[in-house]
Known about the structure:
The complex is a heterodimer of chains A (80) and B (159).
Chain A: H1 2-9, H2 16-19, H3 30-34, H4 46-49, H5 53-68
Chain B: E1 2-10, H1 16-32, E2 36-52, E3 55-67, H2 69-81, E4 85-94, H3 99-135, H4 140-143, H5 146-158
Antiparallel strand pairs in B: 1-3, 1-4, 2-3
Helix pairs in contact in B: 1-2
Amino acid sequence: MITLKRRKYGRRKVCRFCADSSLKIDYKEPRTLRYYTTERGKIIPRRISGCCAKHQRELTLAIKRARHIALLPFSAQGNN
Amino acid sequence: MRHYETIFIVHPELTEEDTAGVVEKFRGILEQGGGFLVKEDHWGRRRLAYTVKKQNKGYFVLFEYGAESSAVDEMERNFKIDEQVIRYLTVKLCDSFDLEAMSQARAEAEAAEAAKAAEAAKAAEAAEAAQATEESGAAKEQSEPEKPAQDNKPEADQD
């Protein structure tokens, strides 16, 4: 039963940045930040990315900084 | 003094000398205002994620330094005036700036870079020597332990 329930709700995601302290959130590294944006360039919400609140906040700031300095797009595909 | 970091994008169509001149100019402004450069990093010409001032590419330069806010203001004012700088971003890294520790860090970084260059030269020599031995068929043992190490890396990334 328990396994069934789990399958229904899906595995609880763990924050990657909490699990691996060697991973740093840096606005100068668009590659790691890309993982947390959609193809269109939107920031992926916490409920999907599985990040903890602290790291999601840092991520959001980093992505916004990266956007300002043109390392990440504000919006992708023909709109820019 | 506070610890700052500034990235600015220089116009991509400038010649190398002109780019160096622009960077030189802003380094001068910063140091005139009492700033102390810890690191200067040239990322080179990169694609921009979107068009800025009709340019799709830009020459990225990173300054890491300690300075008073007045020096930063002065530099940003000049960024706005200078048409060769298409974007800039200043981030405060820390409220305090330890001048001694940072000057030491800079000296160490410079020493490390010199050591790296020396090592690279050595490695190149070693690689040449290794190639010579590989050709004779004695390098089998060296190539085998490298493979599992490569396999481990992607797994760690997935976690």
